[in-house]
């Protein structure tokens, strides 16, 4: 028995002597199914972010730029998507190693960022001179606690969050030893955080500025620190500048130019969710979510071990850590209040004062700063215990805890009428009691007991946070997008529908399109297989396109949920002929659909040719053509243009006749070889937007906004090559210089 104890003690001591190796081992255990391809990430990770990253990777593999994406919402500037991660090297570079690229590989890359966050946490904790066990508690809680686990689907936020502890560590090192390398560390980690333009990035930026200013007083070389901090900020700006410039150039033409304060209500942390700080399953009943908010957004469970450590030893910290603890407590409290959003008075004031806050809709994003602050408070408390601090209850924490328990009990019995919800609190209490027992066994806690505490943290977070509810994606996504080969029909329930889409939409030079309803694996995902969709899932939409076609930002489950517009009043409208809408596929039956290949289909046979040669022009004085006349237009013969008539050689009536000899199509460049008897109008039925230009034989000609949304040009007679080319720099330049292209699109009805 004695030999066994000695062996266990030596093994535990050896494991704790290498905390980073132990952390990697625990990460492999918790994330193994995603690393081995047995599971994939769920929800937005699969439906929005994986297809976006896959498009960037596929374009790069074709040696083309990921600038314009014609496969979603009729087309949009892909590189300007603030959450598309087009410029994020830690995502794009490893994804280039996958041939499709696959959803399995994407999931592995994301959970690798979770490990990056944990390794950054151990580096930071080591810099604060914490022992191995507190380092691991901090790292595991930061990696898998609360929203760090429940919102793993929101990949851009997870990627920014992965570099937060590294930025924190680098800023601290810069204040201690100002120099080129420490400044480069701050700049690189800050830039990698800032490449995703989410509210998490915004709040990390505020934190970095406040923390960086706070470090001035303690820096031994203040002048050098300030100089190198300014250099680091310049480097961070240089890294994120391409994304920022492109997004801000595109933003005025979208539905997200500004959000009203009321839009933040649904993204505010609900009061009921505060109970999840005490118990992971507090708002659940047999798999049914009973909470008022979003199940992933409103989640605070950090684990019972960190909560126990903080409440029991939080007032026993050594003098060296007390200032840090006060700062962390302030951050945790402020971020919780901020996360409550419109449910608390402070957010409305911040909305009016802080520039840029009106671009975001989820105050609960602040919980990504609450997690590391609370996790480090727990780690500091545990470290104090290991260094001999007596049991000294943190009475302010106990008061808050008592109020929270009372509120949770009231909510369970009086509001939810679900007394069984209190079982989640009892489970946490048992785990906390086990933690106290392990940590109070002796004056010097044995390595075996410490390893048991680490195991308790891991099992608790694995069972409650890293499970199907938050990490577990649909098997269909894994099967449909596993590799470059086409999936067999038995591979997935959605595979037959994907195959039929390919058969219906294929064979054209430019993409024909489909709309998809309720077929979740195909929403955005079909674009990975080269299918073009006129709807999809993205909170950011090109406003003129949404105005004409009525598409929404989120996927709809049924065809009868679709909102039509005066220009596109139904699926028989000519506007859909211009767009190339060939098929509508729905999981649920609808009027006019036929069941086939696991879905219900409506096919459209009136799609217009992708290249048109109208001979007469109608002008519209308003930003968009009059809906009634627009719907009755024969677009083969007539072209709509904004007034006044452009300064070109083509006639308004009886313009030239052009024969189209060849069309070469790619996302960023369309080349049309034609022969015309005299100056002629040519319309290419793909979306026009800032950044596009028209050229004839390499010489630029005026680009026209034809038929409200499409690319048009007046071309000279004879045999020539018309090219429509997308330039990202032109899009950026047109926004900031307000050139003719900007004026043309401002007149489309989008904000100037």
TrEMBL record:
Keyword Repeat attached: no
Transmembrane residue ranges: 21-41, 103-124, 131-149, 155-171, 178-195, 201-218, 225-245, 299-317, 324-346, 366-383, 395-414, 420-439, 446-464
Domain of life (superkingdom): Bacteria
Alphabetical UniProt keywords: Membrane, Transmembrane, Transmembrane helix
Keyword Secreted: no
InterPro entries, alphabetized: Uncharacterised_YfhO
Protein name: YfhO family protein
Source species of the chain: Vulcaniibacterium tengchongense
């Amino acid at each position: 028995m004695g030999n066994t104890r000695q062996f266990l003690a030596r093994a535990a001591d050896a494991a704790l002597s290498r905390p980073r190796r132990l952390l990697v081992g625990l990460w492999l255990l918790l994330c193994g199914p995603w690393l081995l391809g047995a599971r994939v990430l769920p929800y937005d990770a699969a439906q929005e972010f994986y297809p976006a990253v896959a498009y960037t990777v596929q374009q790069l593999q074709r040696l083309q730029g990921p600038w314009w994406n014609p496969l979603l919402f009729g087309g949009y500037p892909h590189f300007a998507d603030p959450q598309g991660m087009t410029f994020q090297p830690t995502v794009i570079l490893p994804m280039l190693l996958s041939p499709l690229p696959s959803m399995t590989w994407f999931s592995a890359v994301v959970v690798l960022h979770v490990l990056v966050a944990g390794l950054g946490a151990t580096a930071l904790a080591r810099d604060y001179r914490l022992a191995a066990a507190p380092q691991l508690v901090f790292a595991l809680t930061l990696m898998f606690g609360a929203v760090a686990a429940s919102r793993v689907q929101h990949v851009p936020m997870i990627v920014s969050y992965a570099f937060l502890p590294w930025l924190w560590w680098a800023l601290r090192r810069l204040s201690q030893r100002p120099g080129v390398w420490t400044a480069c560390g701050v700049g690189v980690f800050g830039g990698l955080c800032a490449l995703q333009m989410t509210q998490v990035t915004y709040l990390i930026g505020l934190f970095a500025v406040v923390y960086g200013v706070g470090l001035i007083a303690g820096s031994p070389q203040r002048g050098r620190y300030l100089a190198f901090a300014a250099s680091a900020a310049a480097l961070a700006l240089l890294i994120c500048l391409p994304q920022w410039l492109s997004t801000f150039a595109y933003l005025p033409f979208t539905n997200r130019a500004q959000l009203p304060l009321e839009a933040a209500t649904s993204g505010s942390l609900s009061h009921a969710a505060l109970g999840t700080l005490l118990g992971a399953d507090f708002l659940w009943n047999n798999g049914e979510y009973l909470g008022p908010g979003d199940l992933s957004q409103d989640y605070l469970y950090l684990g019972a071990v960190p909560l126990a450590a903080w409440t029991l030893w939080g007032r026993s910290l050594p003098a060296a850590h007390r200032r840090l603890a006060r700062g962390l407590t302030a951050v945790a409290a402020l971020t919780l209040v901020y996360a409550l959003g419109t449910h608390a008075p402070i957010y409305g004031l911040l909305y009016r004062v802080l520039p840029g806050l009106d671009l975001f809709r989820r105050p609960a994003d602040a919980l990504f700063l609450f997690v590391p602050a609370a996790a480090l408070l727990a780690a500091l408390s545990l470290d104090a215990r290991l260094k001999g601090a007596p049991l000294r209850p943190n009475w302010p924490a106990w008061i808050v805890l008592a109020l929270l328990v009372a509120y949770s009990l009231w909510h369970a019995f009086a509001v939810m009428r679900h007394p069984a919800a209190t079982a989640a609190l009892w489970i946490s209490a048992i785990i906390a009691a086990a933690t106290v027992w392990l940590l109070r066994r002796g004056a010097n806690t044995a390595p075996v007991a410490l390893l048991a505490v680490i195991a308790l943290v891991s099992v608790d977070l694995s069972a409650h946070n890293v499970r199907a509810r938050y990490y577990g994606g649909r098997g269909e996504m894994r099967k449909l997008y596993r590799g470059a080969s086409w999936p067999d029909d038995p591979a997935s329930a959605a595979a037959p529908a994907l195959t039929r889409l390919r058969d219906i939409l294929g064979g054209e030079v430019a993409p024909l399109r489909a709309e998809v309803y309720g077929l979740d694996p195909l929403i955005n995902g079909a674009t990975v297989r080269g299918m073009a969709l006129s709807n999809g899932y993205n909170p950011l939409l090109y406003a003129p396109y949404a105005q004409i076609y009525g598409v929404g930002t989120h996927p709809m489950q049924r065809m009868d949920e679709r909102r039509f517009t005066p220009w596109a009043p139904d699926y028989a409208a000519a506007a859909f002929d211009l767009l190339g809408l060939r098929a509508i596929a729905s999981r649920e039956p609808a009027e006019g659909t036929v069941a086939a290949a696991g879905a219900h289909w409506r096919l459209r046979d009136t799609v217009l040719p992708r290249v048109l040669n109208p001979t007469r022009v109608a002008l519209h004085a308003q930003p968009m053509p009059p809906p009634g006349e627009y719907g009755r237009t024969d677009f083969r013969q007539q072209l709509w243009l904004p007034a006044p008539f452009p300064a070109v050689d083509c006639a308004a009536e009886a313009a030239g006749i052009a024969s189209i000899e060849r069309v070469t199509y790619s996302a960023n460049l369309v080349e049309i070889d034609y022969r015309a008897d005299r100056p002629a109008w040519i319309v290419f039925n793909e979306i026009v937007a800032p950044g596009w230009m028209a050229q004839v034989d390499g010489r630029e000609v005026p680009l026209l906004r034809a038929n409200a949304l499409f690319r048009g040009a007046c071309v000279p007679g004879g045999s020539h090559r018309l090219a429509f080319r997308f330039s990202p720099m032109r899009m950026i330049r047109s926004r900031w210089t307000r050139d003719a292209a900007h004026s043309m699109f401002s007149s489309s009805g989008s904000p100037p």
